[in-house]
Structure formats: structure tokens, C-alpha cells
Amino acid sequence: MTAFSRTPALLLLLAFAAGLASPARAQSAVAEGRKLAFDRGKGNCLTCHVIKGGDLPGTIGPELKDLKAKYPDRNELVAIIFDETKRNPQTMMPPFGRNRILTDQEISAIVDFLQTL
């Protein structure tokens, strides 16, 4: 068997393996995002927002629900969390990314979680 004849089988095996790992990785990001969003010392989303499953929510910001429908482009939600003052200079929302409260990876995980609400 030549290297060329094994290539399709190898590619199929890699694609299958990637497909199996992807849902677990996505679930992990959602769980991490939920943890960060509810963490009073990190994301702290509950200080201002009602989020299903969260305790003692605030009412300064809007309830966080149906966000995937409201923001089908996840990059818009990332931008809001990173620095909402660019879009709305009068916002009360802290610029989590600009002020390095959250890393890009943490913001991405929070967005993954918010899109499940």
C-alpha cells in the first residue's frame, strides 16, 4: 500500500475523531463560561443581570436570555463584553476585555454559555 492510498482513510479517521471531540470541547467551554458568568469575583454578570439559574441577580442590565437570537453574530456579543463603551459610551457595563478583567478566552467561554440561554 502506498502513502497515497492510505491518505483518504487517514483523513476519514481524523475527521471522525475531530467530530467526536468537538461536542465535549464545546460543553467544556459552556461550563467554563457559566462558571465565569456566575463568579462574583471574575465575570460577575449576576451583579447587573438576571440569568436563569443564577442567585441574587441585579436589575441594572437587561435579563440575559435568547441571546443567540438577539446576537446571531457571536462577534457582536464578544465586542459588547470586551468593551461596550465603543458602541455605547454611556453604558454602565465594565469593559471586561479592555480592562483585562477577562481574557479573550474567558470572554469566548462566556459567550458560548450566553448563547445557550
Could you explain the architecture of this structure?
- The chain is mainly α and 117 residues long.
- Helices cover 52% and strands 0% of the residues.
- The chain contains 4 helices and no strands.
- It has helices spanning 3-38, 67-70, 74-83, 104-114.
- Helix 1 crosses helix 4 (104-114) and helix 3 (74-83) crosses helix 4.
- The model is unreliable at 1-5 and 11-17 (pLDDT under 50).
Which key terms come to mind for this protein?
single chain; 117 residues; mainly alpha; 4 helices; 52% helix; globular; disordered N terminus
What topology does this entry show?
Elements: H1 3-38, H2 67-70, H3 74-83, H4 104-114
Helix pairs in contact: 1-4, 3-4
Gyration radius (Cα, Å) is: 19 Å
Percent strand equals under 5%
Q: Gap between N and C termini, in Å?
A: 51 Å
Query: What is the succession of H and E elements?
Result: HHHH
Query: Total number of β-strand segments?
Result: 0
Broad structural category: mainly alpha
Overall, the morphology is: globular
Count of DSSP-assigned helices: 4
Overall mean confidence score, pLDDT? 85
Which stretches are poorly predicted, pLDDT < 50 over at least 5 residues? 1-5, 11-17
Q: Main sheet, how many strands, which sense, barrel?
A: none
Task: Estimate percent helicity.
Answer: 40-55%
